[in-house]
Amino acid sequence: MIPVTTFAGKKVAVFGLGGSGLLTAKALKAGGAHVIAWDDAPLKNEQARAAGIEAANLADIDWSDVAALVLSPGVPLTHPTPHWTVQRAKYENVEVIGDIELFCRERAVHGPACPLVAITGTNGKSTTTALTAHLIKQAGRDAQMGGNIGTPALALEPFAPGRHYVLEVSSYQVDLAPSLKATVGILINVSADHLDRHGTIENYAAIKTLVVAQVEPGGTAVIGVDDRWSREAADRVERAGKKVERISVEGPVRDGYFADGPRIMRASGGKPFPAAQLTGIGSLRGQHNAQNAACAIAACVALGLDLPAIQKGLVSFPGLAHRMQAVGRKQTAAGHILYVNDSKATNADSTSKALSSFHDIFWIAGGKPKAGGIDSLSEFWPRIRKAYLIGEAAEAFAKTLDGKVDHEIDGVLSKAIEAATRDAEASGLKEAVILLSPACASFDQYPNFEVRGQAFADLALALPGVSSLAPR
Question: What's 32's domain CATH number?
Fold first, then answer.
């Protein structure tokens, strides 16, 4: 854990004790702050008290000497309306920040020489984060990985010479981290998402862009330029005098990295040369993973890693759980059925990456719907043999698919996987793919996408004749 010493002797209010909240409260207390924490769930407050943290309703405390409100990223800061704690903090002229901001302030004091890679984007954040950390570790360096990918930033090992930090940061976290200044900032892509929390795509894109716009002096901004918002960001950041490495999987770039089939090319002054080869690396299958890999490669080159070491690390990358993760295989008379867990695909754009990577798909989709539904996926309908719909979105998805894709409403994952297996076995295909790629949040039936993905893996591996392909 990284103790937060920058608030030593000061009173700090913490709201939200799920996920990183309790860890943040502990880190503040360990650094000498007077912490008062609260959560709407009584059990969370009991857990805080058991951990030695003072838990009290923030509506009842004296705010006159509160130095900061540390807000959980899951709590609305601006949209649809600011949370009442945010409104109270602003009334009391108290700054509102998050755990990533605490990490950044500690780094500025105790680890300014420790390289920081901050990674954001609508899709691909977690894979790029995991791959970047993997490449750094495989090159023999100390890499600490955390943030939105699962391990809270303040839960990482304290700052030490030569230690690298690789953080996935969501738009919610960036919004609460005004002093985020990375050695390498990565913006992979921007498409509409979380608009309920940011109001407009313009606001959302502006927040994402801060990760690359605010790289520290001498740092590098790595920016995907295959969408309008990121392309415009690259131009603005470059005009501001920052070093920019452009990334594309749609065509060559003058300065940066681009995909040429399975090769990642590096260009300088319009002159390209091979940087890496992705042929045969199953964990980096698909055009979207070429984009993720190019971003990670650019970051690692900026950190001083050489290309042979990077290539070696790419080959050994195991992939990311719940993101196009092959979890099981079942032999059939004609060939086999591959079970693929893409539970992390919580919106249509993310699901498009999986649908573009396979053929003969028996698609399990649905959950708590996101804005836009699945209309944008129509180009992939010919790849889908049949769809199996679950959760709150099932009826709406069925209307979208009517007359276009064979489908059935199964409601729950267990029924869907049984039906998909039945149909895949009867199809006579050499390779049938049963793909869980929901294009929805999980919260209607599961607490998070990880639990949903693990349920899919468990159900698949419980079927007769299915052998495991991934650690459980």
Answer: 3.40.50.720
